[in-house]
Amino acid sequence: GGARGAMPPLEPWEDEPRPQMFPGAAPKMLTGSSDRTMKLWDLKSGECVRTFPGHKHSVLCLVVDWDAMRVVSGSADHTLAQWDLQTCLWLSDMEGHEGPVCCISVHWSTRRVISGSYDRDLRLWDMVTNNTQHVLKGHEGPVCAMSVDWAAERALSGSGDKTIRQWNLKTCECLQVVDGHTGPVWGVSLSPEDGFSALSGSVDRHVMLWDLRGGVCLRAMLQHQRAVTAVNVDWPTFQAMTCSVDRAIILWDLEAGEPITRFLGHPGTISCMCIDWIGRRMVSGAGPGDNCLRLWDFSDGWCEMEIEGHMGAVWTADVDWAAAHRAVAEAQGFEADEDEDEGKAGASDED
Fold first, then answer.
1. Is pTM beyond 0.70 here?
2. What is the pLDDT of residues 207-223, one digit of tens each?
3. CA 96 vs CA 18, 41, 132, 133, 315: distances in Å
4. From CA 345, how far away is CA 148, in angstroms rounded?
5. How far apart are CA 250 and CA 228, in angstroms?
């Protein structure tokens, strides 16, 4: 502490408290954990509002329609479940997978769900009947990650078999197998901008940028020291966020293939991220030895809050960022752009 005294006194403006992260709003967040529960949080206060037991094993993925307060979750108990957050009721199960369900994407307007499982299959479901419409087979290992462009009826999946597959959701056929990673692929993102750019993250520690037209790896970026657990891309700005077993989160400039910022502080493996690219805010969730969530301002790397409450690893999180956007817009005197909430298509893309 001795060196501290050598610091020049703070200028008056440096002592200012940080502006509120959510002025005029208290966004909700839903998380899923190894403790077999989902928890609903007030992200402004960091308080847990409600706990949802029901799954018989870890909750590995979830997607929320915040307008309708409906949820689809996937679990290590091999099932998907539908929930009503308003009434706090479990609505139905979707059964068919023979292994943990680790990734899902939901198209709320057509009531369709696609899920990926350790049983090596992807399944398309009808949310109204809870029945499987199609089983997409091809992977020779667990399906660990998924990214879906519902408008184009295409999906990308990453697997323990080290490959990435592209699927046509209309015909349910596999369009392409992409090789390059030397370890399981735990994170994928498909660009809805051009339809052929993709990003992946793997246990081989590499983050790879692809041109799917030829299955060509444009860049292999090595900055993480351990397995990459998830990727999330803001395709319009060509920036990406990746997290890892190395306990770091990296913000990337994909054009340069270089890291912009590293976010450190989690004492455990970081397993999930939910990102507000517009507001430059992010929530990250971590696993054993941590079991906490952190709320970040990634414009300057500030950790706003550490959120505790789950008794196990936090595998998935979904935040109602649109509520924060609306509050800002209303404060500025105009209604938030209706279609700004592109997450409506079901944004569990990158868990």
1. yes
2. 999 999 999 999 999 99
3. 49, 30, 7, 11, 22
4. 9
5. 10
